[in-house]
Protein: Cytochrome C
Organism: Thalassospira xiamenensis
Amino acid sequence: MRILLIVILGGLLPAGASLAQDIDAGRKVAGICRTCHGLDGFARIPIAPHIGGEPAAYIETQLRAFRDGSREHEMMTVVASSLSDQQIADAAAWYNHFDVTATLPAGENPDDAPELCSTCHGSNGISEMPDVPNLAGETNIYLETQLKAFRNGKRNHDIMSPIATELDDKGMQTAADWYSAITINITDPTKPN
Ligand code: HEC
Ligand code: HEC
């Protein structure tokens, strides 16, 4: 299973060389993002996801998807349409450079994490793979909206679409409840606390 996953995920990495990323330039781009995602990627509004510490490849893929219309959202479509490839690469480097840690609610056992999801998203909602997003601490509404979008075809992905198609509303709720109950902490490793 593990090897299969690596092959699948490996196949999804974008072809072609990626642009050199500049964290400082990304901080400037993040000025456009901060009202919703915070400068540190800890979301300031419930419908926006936390993006601090997300894999850079994932952030880039999503910004490109919003820009080319394959993922749609009234706010992000507008934001992404104004970004150059370089700004996308820099913003991804900026938000990726944060450390994110996740804590399960007291008394929860990691073994009770939704089994179908934890292989890729971790039992604590922190991904260990470059193209897989963190789910820890995202709101219930965000998680369920995304799962439904994969299920109804509004959002498409080789791996997530078939998984979401297998889930009923109850299954989505259970997974969303698990990951939204996790507390996250985002810190800047380049700054002493
Ligand atoms: C006006 C608010 C707003 C601004 C400004 C904004 N975003 Fe977003 N962003 C959102 C919302 C809302 C979503 C969730 C979209 C959805 O439900 O599909 C989102 C989603 C994303 C995602 C997808 C994350 C995931 O987990 O799939 C990324 C990446 C992202 N934004 C990056 C950025 C960057 C980088 C900027 C600045 C250049 C930015 N956003 C500016 C509101 C905003
Ligand atoms: C084989 C690996 C794999 C498994 C198993 C998996 N996912 Fe995913 N998941 C992904 C990848 C890759 C993405 C990114 C999709 C994209 O690029 O649009 C993703 C995206 C998501 C998103 C969107 C997150 C965001 O920030 O927008 C949600 C929600 C999600 N998965 C929930 C689940 C749930 C719930 C399960 C279990 C029922 C699950 N996933 C199982 C690989 C996986």
User: Anything to note?
Assistant: The two ends are 41 Å apart (CA to CA). The chain is about 50% helix and 5% strand. Confidence is low (pLDDT under 50) at residues 10-17. The CA atoms of residues 12 and 30 lie 26 Å apart.
